[in-house]
Design goal:
Immunoglobulin-like; 8 strands; eight-stranded mixed beta sheet; Serine Threonine Protein Phosphatase 5, Tetratricopeptide repeat; 3 domains; alpha+beta
Length: 329
């Protein structure tokens, strides 16, 4: 505190000395008196009316909003705006995530009145019903909503997962295992590893032997360049290897982005490289493989890129393939 006051007084004196410079030459006594008087007056005013304790002061941080406060605010929003679907869904899912399953159910029901064809909401509603009930007592309402979701989106992975749970709950472990086994090729390796113990418990309950993790299917690709391009690697270029639908519609099924190195470059594509989690590479009966060196380094094709001719591959007849890059005109 003392150091701050001394520094402040010195700054005041310095500024006043500069401001009063013309008086030093003619009226030194008057200038000195004015200088000291102004400095003293400044210090007195600060001491009387200022806030020395404010030095280093930090405003108190606002307390974090509690979950209860957030839920109360959402309740107010949906009460005042009953057709606000976004707020209604957020409230319902918040109750679901915090374990308030029965409280969540009417909000899911209201949300489905606003979005009657939303399969994701149907699965959420079914989950809230299932979790609110007793494990040994199947609730037909959960089954009804899962079936509705699957009728709209047959490949909805969450709906299929909960379908397996409901089958197991209904005393149908063999059917539950079959449903979950059909999910294995469509989920990533981490999810598959987590799902396998559930499958094996259902298989054991059904009197079936436990299964091991199916081997991961991959397509092996060698990417090479035309002889005319051997010594013309573009600086900053990036290699993209990708698989698309046979009809070419939509984004790639799977893709890899690889820094350029010496050709040929060896690449493998599998379901783990799928671009969309609900649209796996090997969920298709076939696909088209292609490679491109992007001169700009971005995924968008551009003039001067190197590109290979497309090669069609059948999912049940995998074989190693070589893609040869040539320069686009």
């Amino acid at each position: 505190m003392t150091l701050f006051i001394l520094i402040s007084l010195l700054l005041v004196l310095l500024l006043l000395a500069i401001a009063l410079k013309p008086l030093w030459l003619k009226q030194r006594g008057f200038a000195a008196a004015l200088l000291l008087g102004c400095a003293g007056l400044t210090a007195g005013l600060y001491w009387q009316f200022g806030r020395p304790e404010a030095i280093g002061y930090q405003a108190p941080q606002a307390a974090e909003q509690t979950i209860e406060q957030a839920l109360a605010e959402l309740e107010t929003v949906v009460r005042e705006q009953p057709t606000n679907l976004e707020a209604r869904v957020l409230l319902a899912r918040s109750y679901l995530q915090t374990g308030q399953y029965q409280v969540a159910q009417p909000h899911f029901a209201e949300a489905l009145k606003l979005a009657p064809d939303n399969a994701g909401l149907m699965v959420d509603y079914a989950e809230s019903i299932f979790r609110a009930g007793k494990p040994e007592v199947p609730d037909p309402r959960a089954r009804e909503w899962i079936d509705k979701a699957l009728s709209i989106e047959p490949d909805n992975q969450r709906a299929r997962f909960f379908s397996g749970i409901l089958l197991l709950q209904a005393g149908q472990p063999k059917d539950a295992a079959a449903v979950w086994e059909s999910l294995l090729p469509q989920v990533d390796a981490t999810t598959a590893q987590a799902l396998l113990p559930q499958i094996n418990r259902a298989r054991v309950d059904a009197g079936l032997p436990a299964m091991t993790m199916p081997s991961v299917r991959v397509v092996s690709i060698a990417v090479d360049v035309d002889s005319s391009l051997k010594d013309k690697t573009p600086p900053g270029g990036v290699l993209f290897v990708f698989a698309k639908r046979i009809d070419g519609v939509g984004p790639p099924l799977a893709a890899k982005r690889i820094p350029l190195a010496a050709f040929p470059i060896q690449v493998q594509l599998s379901d783990a490289d799928s671009v969309m989690p609900t649209d796996r590479l090997f969920s298709q009966s076939g696909f088209v493989l292609q490679a491109r060196v992007s001169v700009s380094g971005t995924a968008e094709a551009g003039a001067g890129d190197w590109q290979s001719a497309p090669v069609t591959m059948q999912s049940d007849k995998l074989a190693a393939v070589t893609l040869v890059l040539r320069q686009n005109p």
